[in-house]
């Protein structure tokens, strides 16, 4: 894990969703950037904590459901579709109402 933590720069995962306007597809992304906390978590083998670090949106990181909420708010994706494909429906509903998810904006040590 130490070698991975030192060589990793970023990971981008992408899925494509139908656009609300029917004109093609739009990317739905999850982004992990190699920040000091990410390096520490990987070096310590704390993979389960990576999503929390991403949820804080530091350095442009985001989890799929955060990006999905942004796509719905921007009018690019239908809310009904977003609720079908999301990973945490309750958290997405809260995000669409403007309520932060547990741990969003909270740091890891």
How would you sum up this structure, described in words?
The protein is α+β, with helices and mostly antiparallel strands. The protein has one domain (2-96): 3-Layer(aba) Sandwich (Rossmann fold), CATH 3.40.50.300. The chain contains six helices and two strands. It has a two-stranded antiparallel sheet with strand order 1-2. It is elongated. 23% of the residues are buried.
Fold blueprint:
Elements: H1 2-7, E1 10-18, E2 25-33, H2 36-43, H3 50-55, H4 64-73, H5 79-85, H6 89-96
Antiparallel strand pairs: 1-2
Helix pairs in contact: 4-6
Q: Low-confidence runs (pLDDT<50, min 5 residues)?
A: 103-109
- Average of pLDDT: 90
Identify the CATH architecture: 3-Layer(aba) Sandwich
**Arrangement of strands in the largest sheet:** 1-2
Strand content: 15-25%
Number of helices: 6
CATH class descriptor name: Alpha Beta
How many strand segments? 2
Radius of gyration: 15 Å
- The span between the termini is 18 Å
Largest sheet: 2 strands, antiparallel
Summarize this structure briefly.
The protein has 109 residues and is an alpha+beta fold. The chain is 41% helix and 17% strand. The protein has helices spanning 2-7, 36-43, 50-55, 64-73, 79-85, 89-96; strands spanning 10-18, 25-33.
